[in-house]
Amino acid sequence: MTYSKIAATAICAGISLFASLPLHAGAAAEVSSPQRNGALPGGGTYVVHRDATVGNAVVELWFRAPGAGYDSAAPGLSRLALTAVAASRPAPHDTSFAEAVRLAGGRLSINAYPDIVEVGASVPAASAAAIVRAMTRAYFRATIGADGFKSAQRDVALAAAEKHFSADRTVHDLLMTQLFTGGPAHYPPTPDSVASLGRLTLAQTQAFAQRAFREANAVLSIAGNAGPAAVAAAWHPAGAASGAPVSDPPFDSTPARDLGDAVAAAPIAGAGLAWLGPGIAKTRAATALDFVADYLFNADNGVVTAAADSIDPDSVVNGQFITLHEPGVLLVTISSQKQAGALRAETLAAVDRLRSPLDARAFAAARKAFEYHILSAVQTPVNAADNFGWFAVEGDAAYAPGDVSGTYVRDVESLDPRFVASVVRAYLAHPATVELTQSHSQEASQ
């Protein structure tokens, strides 16, 4: 799956502004097919997944954009640029995109990941077309003003400071640094220090935004009560198609040859494990590791989740397979003051047991539960928009759970105990590990 809210893991920082709107499940009733895919006039693509039974729409723009810049020298640059554009007014008396969302009574979200970024808005359905217009105008022009830049610096600086007090996010960043020796995934999408953020200049951020946030590099993902008319409202810069008609290729990272162990001091104790997995082109193997993550770590009935409740009721264990272009990552983070080591050992033991095929009856029940979890998760407009956008920018739009093609569901239904066990043996042999030791002196100094 994705880094997204579906997995309920705060492993990459984002900002959310303004009041949230209620989201409800439902099926589109006003069109023969709830989904439409197509190309934007200036390059890039769009996907609309309509649900006319809800009162809101979610509009998102996704871009392939390396988090540390195109030269890997500026960790946090993509997030700073994405936030600065939202906060900037193109002209002194204009309205910024963030203000436009607030005036519509909506909710703005900004998320930066190692290789991609996303800006989204959940708004009343009647405002969908206007928000598409405002969003595309802001990002396809990518104008950053001095005030917007300062506002973005404050937001990202706050996120950098907060990250030190999250075992989950700290472990995630350390694991990714171990898994990859180079490329976007080697660097945290939110910088580790305010000092490093201060070295990023307005001119540098503006140049990055204009290169990354062009129409040809965009995926416009719309879900909820909005149809093709919302896509028609998109703003297109004159001459953009002739200047840059092609999307950037996926930004892959360089896997480490030897995965090691790391120990770090942090205000909160914790641990983590991560394995390199198949890329998005190997959809059946990737789906098998989605199944493994659900079987072990689902919040309601995961095998490791149940064990964690017995070992340390105050612990939090998150695990998910992150679908990337190449390679994917199965990543587990553990927050526990006293039992992080025991929980890590329990996780390794549970993974090791899956090297042998599950009993047929137990597997069938687990696969049915997994399919239910996946399809339930993508019923809300925000989760649907997240998934369609994520899988499109990672390289296979049709593989998104909930896509009208049914590709993902077919892969789920094709899984069998022997195949899943073979995938576990092939990919989940030697993990990278992280141990966080609690440092009271560091906590006091923050």
Describe it for me?
By secondary structure, the chain is an alpha+beta fold. About 40% of the residues lie in helices and about 20% in strands. It has 17 helices and 14 strands. A 7-stranded mixed β-sheet has the order 1-5-6-4-8-3-2, sandwiched between helices. Helix 10 (about 285-295) packs across helix 16 (about 415-425). The longest helix is centred in the middle third of the chain and has 18 residues, at about 145-165. It is globular, with a radius of gyration of 21 Å. The protein starts with 13 loop residues before the first strand and ends with a helix. Mean pLDDT is about 90; it is low at about 5-30 and about 440-445.
Which structural class best describes the helix and strand composition? alpha+beta
Major pleated sheet: 7 strands, mixed
**Tally of DSSP helical segments:** 17
The pLDDT mean sits at 89
Percentage beta strand? 15-25%
Global shape: globular
Give the low-confidence spans.
4-31, 441-446
Adjacency order of strands in the biggest sheet: 1-5-6-4-8-3-2
